[in-house]
Write a structure and sequence with these properties.
The chain is built from ten helices and 21 strands. By secondary structure, it is α/β, with parallel strands linked by helices.
């Protein structure tokens, strides 16, 4: 074949090959640098994932968090963990985590995984210690300086000395209706057990004044039972008498600024295990002692309501009666204490005010609240629900069917609410709907959360009360509109 024909043929073949290649616009994205995970792989902490670096201009990204074995292999997707941030769960303890990012351009996509994290660890704290058996069925005695629990049976004060329940309304000492509209302040349930403080942020007079500046009339204060009792290796600086006094002083500052306080036991753990997260139910080892001491500490305070638990995942019978009925801590079953016991212990230790009982399924489900209401000789029980966008009950229609019947019989508060439970939206559509429904039904509410975490669910960007984004501004605006 002549050289010029060979050359022409080669050029034609090259042209055909080039035509067969997709254009840059039609090529699938290509990973240049793998996604990276930042943050501490510690139960209760939040990890963040970067997208990585991609060529060919992808327009959309999807995240999937993976729970792997202790070597970073055999990875499985974590149900519902499909956002750039992931809250590390107790079920991931000892595992390594990865994130898979899928980049898309049109119909074409490509995915790449991050390197694994270190093994998920418990939050750092002082060494665990075991306490000798103590009173009230607890494996630890009352902490030094704390009120000594008395046996149920003593006569509590008559309702009406302070805030009290009348029908489905919460009234103050003057007989005026009280509708909570305020915020949660998170930190006192975890900072102490993690060994770096009692509060996660400021708690001084200026910080409380900032909360009040939003026209908040209540603050939800969260307790850790190990820190309250000063057991299981909690650092002395952050536990026992120091912790209790810090909480007492914080409540006094809240009240000095014209607000009420809901005080709720939130994190607990059985036996000698550390209370590093909120488990399925209160434990029979320590929770009754905390309830007794809560009752004795605030029995003469007219501006407080007490909540023996935050969120449960056991069934309604177990939550009411306690027992060996489904609660476990880090995979080990334990005996739970029920809400009937909580009412009995608090009444027997001098508390005559309202006791707030949450629903089941992370306090989101109130369908069995009325049928499993504890017996209270003073008839001073309130109901609590927690509601976020994406919850099973997360719409006004569901609130009508589930929450409405309860609110018609007892005072109801939304102890927590927010835009989405997984922090995936920084908007306020759901939050506004929850507040509007509550206002129309005389239901109180406490927004999550007055912290500067930088997440979608953080109400503030500065402890001076500067609202953060759409969500923070919406909550502030709504609170300011309330009487």
């Amino acid at each position: 074949m002549p050289a010029r024909i060979r050359t022409a043929t080669l050029l034609a073949l090259l042209a055909l090959a080039a035509a067969a290649q997709p254009s840059a616009a039609a090529q699938r994205p290509a990973s240049v640098r793998a996604p990276r995970i930042s943050g501490k792989a510690v139960v209760g902490q939040t990890l963040s994932a970067s997208r990585g670096t991609w060529s060919r201009h992808p327009t959309r990204f999807a995240y999937a968090w993976l729970r792997c074995d202790s070597k970073g292999g055999a990875c499985r997707t974590i149900a519902g963990a499909t956002h750039a941030r992931h809250h590390v769960r107790a079920s991931e303890l000892g595992r390594r985590l990865r994130v898979r990012v899928r980049a898309r351009r049109g119909r074409l996509s490509a995915a790449r995984r991050s390197a694994p994290t270190g093994r998920v660890a418990r939050p750092p704290a002082a060494g665990t210690t075991t306490q000798p058996p103590g009173a009230n069925g607890s494996s630890a005695p009352p902490a030094e300086g704390a009120p000594s629990p008395s046996s149920p049976g003593s006569s509590p004060p008559a309702p009406g000395a302070g805030m009290h329940v009348s029908g489905n309304k919460l009234l103050n000492a003057a007989g005026d209706q009280v509708l909570f509209h305020g915020v949660n302040v998170s930190g006192t349930e975890y900072a102490c057990i993690q060994g770096y403080g009692i509060f996660d942020g400021s708690s001084d007079d200026a910080a409380v004044a900032a909360i009040r500046s939003w026209n908040s009339n209540t603050v939800r204060v969260l307790l850790n039972e190990d820190c309250w009792l000063g057991i299981n290796g909690v650092k002395a600086a952050y536990g026992g008498a120091n912790y209790r006094q810090a909480i007492i002083d914080f409540v006094k500052r809240i009240e000095a600024h014209g607000m009420y306080a809901e005080i709720s036991l939130m994190w607990g753990a059985p036996g000698s295990q550390q209370a590093t997260y909120q488990p399925a139910a209160p434990d029979a080892d320590h929770s009754p002692t905390v309830w007794a001491q809560m009752a004795q500490t605030w029995k003469d305070d007219p501006k407080v309501v007490l909540a023996p638990w935050g969120e449960t995942t056991v069934d309604a019978n177990c939550f009411l009666n306690g027992g060996n009925c489904g609660a476990d801590f880090n995979g080990t079953p334990y005996t739970s204490a029920g809400m009937q016991q909580a009412v009995d212990v608090m009444r027997g230790n001098g508390w005559g005010g309202p006791i707030v009982i949450p629903g089941i399924d992370y306090a989101n489900n109130l369908t069995q609240w009325l049928s499993h209401k504890p017996n209270d000789p003073l008839n001073q029980l309130m109901a609590e629900a927690h509601i976020y966008g994406k919850n099973t009950c997360g719409t006004a229609a569901c609130m009508d069917s589930q929450y409405g019947p309860v609110a018609a019989q007892v005072p109801l508060i939304l102890g927590e609410f927010g835009e989405t439970y997984d922090d995936s939206s920084c908007g306020a559509t759901n939050a506004n709907a929850f507040m509007n429904w509550s206002d129309a039904h005389d239901v109180g509410y406490e927004a999550w959360t007055w912290n500067t975490w930088g997440t979608c669910g953080s109400l503030i960007s500065n402890e001076d009360g500067t609202p953060k984004g759409t969500y923070g501004n919406a909550i502030k605006t709504h609170l300011l509109s309330r009487p």
